[in-house]
Design a protein that fits this description.
alpha/beta; 6-stranded parallel sheet; TIM Barrel; 3-stranded parallel sheet; globular
Amino acid sequence: MIDIHSHVLPGLDDGAHSIDESLEMLRLAAASGTTDIVATPHANAEFSFDHARVKQSFSEIAGQSRSFISLHLGCDFHLSYENVSDAVNNAAKYTINNTRYLLVELPDLITPSTVRQGLRQLISADLKPVITHPERNPSLQCKLDELTHWITDGCLVQVTGQSFLGRFGPIAKNIADRLMAAGLIHFVASDAHDCVDRIPDLSGAYKYISSRYGAERADSLCIYNPACAIAGESVSSKVPKETRQPFFGFGKSRTA
Protein backbone atom coordinates (compact mmCIF):
# COMPACT_ATOMS: atom_id res chain seq x y z
CA MET A 1 0.00 0.00 0.00
CA ILE A 2 1.00 3.64 -0.48
CA ASP A 3 0.20 6.30 2.11
CA ILE A 4 0.14 9.90 0.82
CA HIS A 5 -0.61 11.68 4.13
CA SER A 6 1.43 11.33 7.33
CA HIS A 7 3.15 13.40 9.99
CA VAL A 8 6.27 11.30 10.44
CA LEU A 9 8.98 13.97 10.32
CA PRO A 10 10.14 14.81 13.85
CA GLY A 11 9.64 18.14 15.59
CA LEU A 12 7.94 19.99 12.73
CA ASP A 13 4.30 19.88 13.83
CA ASP A 14 1.98 17.82 16.06
CA GLY A 15 3.24 14.54 14.64
CA ALA A 16 6.43 12.68 15.55
CA HIS A 17 8.35 14.40 18.35
CA SER A 18 11.72 12.70 17.95
CA ILE A 19 13.81 10.80 15.43
CA ASP A 20 13.19 7.59 17.35
CA GLU A 21 9.42 8.09 17.21
CA SER A 22 9.63 8.96 13.53
CA LEU A 23 11.51 5.77 12.71
CA GLU A 24 9.16 3.68 14.85
CA MET A 25 6.18 5.11 12.95
CA LEU A 26 7.82 4.17 9.69
CA ARG A 27 8.54 0.66 10.95
CA LEU A 28 4.88 0.29 11.92
CA ALA A 29 3.87 1.44 8.46
CA ALA A 30 6.17 -1.07 6.78
CA ALA A 31 5.04 -3.90 9.06
CA SER A 32 1.39 -3.24 8.14
CA GLY A 33 2.09 -3.48 4.41
CA THR A 34 2.96 0.08 3.37
CA THR A 35 5.82 0.25 0.87
CA ASP A 36 5.80 4.02 0.27
CA ILE A 37 4.74 6.87 2.54
CA VAL A 38 4.60 10.63 2.02
CA ALA A 39 5.73 12.87 4.88
CA THR A 40 3.36 15.84 4.93
CA PRO A 41 4.16 18.42 7.65
CA HIS A 42 1.52 21.03 8.32
CA ALA A 43 1.68 24.48 6.73
CA ASN A 44 -0.70 26.60 8.78
CA ALA A 45 -0.91 29.44 11.30
CA GLU A 46 0.32 27.19 14.11
CA PHE A 47 3.09 25.35 12.27
CA SER A 48 5.04 27.35 9.72
CA PHE A 49 6.42 25.40 6.79
CA ASP A 50 10.16 26.12 6.79
CA HIS A 51 11.11 24.46 3.54
CA ALA A 52 14.83 24.27 4.26
CA ARG A 53 14.23 22.71 7.67
CA VAL A 54 11.65 20.31 6.25
CA LYS A 55 14.03 19.15 3.52
CA GLN A 56 16.84 18.63 6.01
CA SER A 57 14.62 16.55 8.30
CA PHE A 58 13.28 14.59 5.34
CA SER A 59 16.78 13.76 4.08
CA GLU A 60 17.86 12.53 7.51
CA ILE A 61 14.82 10.32 8.10
CA ALA A 62 14.70 9.04 4.51
CA GLY A 63 18.34 7.99 4.79
CA GLN A 64 17.76 6.09 8.02
CA SER A 65 14.59 4.34 6.82
CA ARG A 66 15.63 3.56 3.25
CA SER A 67 16.21 -0.14 3.99
CA PHE A 68 12.59 -0.86 4.92
CA ILE A 69 10.33 1.85 3.38
CA SER A 70 10.39 4.52 0.66
CA LEU A 71 9.80 8.01 2.03
CA HIS A 72 8.56 10.88 -0.13
CA LEU A 73 7.97 14.54 0.68
CA GLY A 74 4.81 16.62 0.54
CA CYS A 75 2.84 19.00 2.75
CA ASP A 76 -0.41 19.17 4.69
CA PHE A 77 -1.31 22.47 3.04
CA HIS A 78 -3.98 24.51 4.82
CA LEU A 79 -6.13 26.61 2.52
CA SER A 80 -5.46 30.26 3.31
CA TYR A 81 -4.82 33.39 1.29
CA GLU A 82 -1.12 33.45 2.22
CA ASN A 83 -0.56 29.78 1.44
CA VAL A 84 -2.40 29.91 -1.88
CA SER A 85 -0.44 32.98 -2.96
CA ASP A 86 2.85 31.26 -2.13
CA ALA A 87 1.89 27.94 -3.74
CA VAL A 88 0.92 29.62 -7.00
CA ASN A 89 4.49 30.90 -7.28
CA ASN A 90 6.34 28.06 -5.51
CA ALA A 91 4.34 24.93 -6.28
CA ALA A 92 7.17 22.41 -5.84
CA LYS A 93 7.65 23.62 -2.28
CA TYR A 94 4.39 21.98 -1.20
CA THR A 95 3.40 19.26 -3.69
CA ILE A 96 3.73 15.50 -3.33
CA ASN A 97 7.13 14.39 -4.63
CA ASN A 98 7.43 17.54 -6.80
CA THR A 99 4.36 16.57 -8.85
CA ARG A 100 1.12 18.55 -9.39
CA TYR A 101 -0.67 16.85 -6.48
CA LEU A 102 -1.21 19.03 -3.41
CA LEU A 103 -2.88 17.91 -0.19
CA VAL A 104 -5.29 20.68 0.86
CA GLU A 105 -6.87 20.84 4.31
CA LEU A 106 -9.90 23.11 4.54
CA PRO A 107 -10.62 25.42 7.52
CA ASP A 108 -12.92 24.14 10.25
CA LEU A 109 -15.27 27.00 9.39
CA ILE A 110 -15.77 27.23 5.65
CA THR A 111 -17.53 29.51 3.22
CA PRO A 112 -18.09 27.36 0.12
CA SER A 113 -17.65 30.22 -2.34
CA THR A 114 -14.36 31.29 -0.75
CA VAL A 115 -13.09 27.73 -0.68
CA ARG A 116 -13.99 27.20 -4.32
CA GLN A 117 -12.20 30.42 -5.28
CA GLY A 118 -9.01 29.30 -3.51
CA LEU A 119 -9.14 25.83 -5.03
CA ARG A 120 -9.67 27.29 -8.50
CA GLN A 121 -6.60 29.50 -8.02
CA LEU A 122 -4.55 26.40 -7.33
CA ILE A 123 -6.03 24.59 -10.33
CA SER A 124 -5.31 27.60 -12.55
CA ALA A 125 -1.67 27.31 -11.47
CA ASP A 126 -1.70 23.73 -12.89
CA LEU A 127 -1.94 22.12 -9.45
CA LYS A 128 -4.18 19.19 -8.54
CA PRO A 129 -5.74 19.84 -5.10
CA VAL A 130 -6.46 16.76 -3.01
CA ILE A 131 -9.03 17.72 -0.36
CA THR A 132 -8.10 15.92 2.85
CA HIS A 133 -10.49 14.17 5.25
CA PRO A 134 -13.74 16.04 4.42
CA GLU A 135 -15.57 13.45 6.53
CA ARG A 136 -13.86 14.90 9.62
CA ASN A 137 -14.44 18.59 8.88
CA PRO A 138 -17.25 19.78 11.19
CA SER A 139 -18.29 22.62 8.91
CA LEU A 140 -18.22 20.53 5.74
CA GLN A 141 -20.10 17.57 7.22
CA CYS A 142 -23.41 19.31 6.53
CA LYS A 143 -22.32 20.80 3.18
CA LEU A 144 -20.88 17.79 1.41
CA ASP A 145 -22.82 18.50 -1.77
CA GLU A 146 -20.11 21.13 -2.31
CA LEU A 147 -17.62 18.31 -2.89
CA THR A 148 -19.25 17.43 -6.18
CA HIS A 149 -18.68 20.99 -7.43
CA TRP A 150 -15.05 21.00 -6.35
CA ILE A 151 -14.41 17.58 -7.88
CA THR A 152 -16.01 18.74 -11.12
CA ASP A 153 -13.59 21.68 -11.07
CA GLY A 154 -10.69 19.20 -10.92
CA CYS A 155 -10.11 18.43 -7.24
CA LEU A 156 -9.68 14.98 -5.72
CA VAL A 157 -10.67 13.67 -2.28
CA GLN A 158 -8.67 11.81 0.38
CA VAL A 159 -10.38 10.14 3.33
CA THR A 160 -8.62 8.99 6.51
CA GLY A 161 -8.43 5.21 6.81
CA GLN A 162 -9.38 5.15 10.48
CA SER A 163 -12.61 7.02 9.72
CA PHE A 164 -13.99 3.77 8.26
CA LEU A 165 -13.14 2.02 11.52
CA GLY A 166 -14.87 4.54 13.78
CA ARG A 167 -11.80 6.29 15.22
CA PHE A 168 -13.24 9.77 14.55
CA GLY A 169 -16.80 8.98 15.62
CA PRO A 170 -20.02 7.76 13.99
CA ILE A 171 -20.64 10.84 11.86
CA ALA A 172 -17.20 10.64 10.20
CA LYS A 173 -17.65 6.90 9.64
CA ASN A 174 -21.10 7.39 8.17
CA ILE A 175 -19.89 10.09 5.81
CA ALA A 176 -16.83 8.07 4.76
CA ASP A 177 -19.10 5.18 3.80
CA ARG A 178 -21.52 7.44 1.94
CA LEU A 179 -18.70 9.11 0.04
CA MET A 180 -17.38 5.66 -0.84
CA ALA A 181 -20.79 4.46 -2.02
CA ALA A 182 -21.11 7.59 -4.17
CA GLY A 183 -17.70 7.11 -5.78
CA LEU A 184 -16.31 10.41 -4.47
CA ILE A 185 -13.11 9.12 -2.82
CA HIS A 186 -9.83 8.94 -4.73
CA PHE A 187 -7.32 8.17 -1.96
CA VAL A 188 -7.33 6.57 1.49
CA ALA A 189 -4.43 7.64 3.72
CA SER A 190 -3.48 7.34 7.38
CA ASP A 191 -2.91 10.97 8.40
CA ALA A 192 -0.73 9.33 11.04
CA HIS A 193 0.55 11.39 13.98
CA ASP A 194 2.01 8.84 16.41
CA CYS A 195 2.66 5.17 17.24
CA VAL A 196 -0.32 4.54 19.52
CA ASP A 197 -3.53 6.34 18.59
CA ARG A 198 -3.24 7.70 15.05
CA ILE A 199 -0.85 5.17 13.61
CA PRO A 200 0.44 4.78 10.02
CA ASP A 201 -1.46 1.54 9.41
CA LEU A 202 -3.75 1.25 6.39
CA SER A 203 -4.30 -2.50 6.67
CA GLY A 204 -7.54 -2.28 8.66
CA ALA A 205 -9.07 0.24 6.28
CA TYR A 206 -7.92 -1.79 3.27
CA LYS A 207 -9.59 -4.93 4.65
CA TYR A 208 -12.78 -3.02 5.47
CA ILE A 209 -13.03 -1.45 2.00
CA SER A 210 -12.15 -4.71 0.29
CA SER A 211 -14.80 -6.69 2.18
CA ARG A 212 -17.54 -4.08 1.78
CA TYR A 213 -16.79 -2.54 -1.63
CA GLY A 214 -14.51 -5.03 -3.32
CA ALA A 215 -10.77 -5.62 -3.65
CA GLU A 216 -10.60 -3.57 -6.85
CA ARG A 217 -11.81 -0.45 -5.02
CA ALA A 218 -9.40 -1.05 -2.15
CA ASP A 219 -6.49 -1.47 -4.55
CA SER A 220 -7.45 1.70 -6.42
CA LEU A 221 -7.63 3.87 -3.28
CA CYS A 222 -4.73 2.40 -1.32
CA ILE A 223 -2.29 1.38 -4.07
CA TYR A 224 -2.88 2.51 -7.66
CA ASN A 225 -4.14 6.08 -7.25
CA PRO A 226 -1.52 6.91 -4.60
CA ALA A 227 1.17 5.48 -6.88
CA CYS A 228 -0.07 7.76 -9.66
CA ALA A 229 0.10 10.77 -7.36
CA ILE A 230 3.70 10.04 -6.38
CA ALA A 231 4.65 9.51 -10.02
CA GLY A 232 2.74 12.57 -11.22
CA GLU A 233 0.43 10.49 -13.39
CA SER A 234 -3.25 11.15 -13.99
CA VAL A 235 -6.00 10.24 -11.53
CA SER A 236 -9.53 10.86 -12.82
CA SER A 237 -11.63 13.43 -10.97
CA LYS A 238 -14.80 12.67 -12.92
CA VAL A 239 -17.93 12.75 -10.76
CA PRO A 240 -20.07 9.62 -11.24
CA LYS A 241 -23.20 10.45 -13.22
CA GLU A 242 -25.56 9.24 -10.50
CA THR A 243 -23.91 11.61 -7.99
CA ARG A 244 -24.35 14.85 -9.92
CA GLN A 245 -27.74 15.54 -8.36
CA PRO A 246 -27.96 16.77 -4.73
CA PHE A 247 -25.89 14.31 -2.80
CA PHE A 248 -28.47 12.03 -1.18
CA GLY A 249 -29.59 14.72 1.27
CA PHE A 250 -26.11 14.90 2.81
CA GLY A 251 -26.77 18.26 4.35
CA LYS A 252 -29.85 16.99 6.16
CA SER A 253 -28.29 14.23 8.24
CA ARG A 254 -25.97 14.60 11.19
CA THR A 255 -26.40 11.12 12.59
CA ALA A 256 -24.87 7.77 11.75
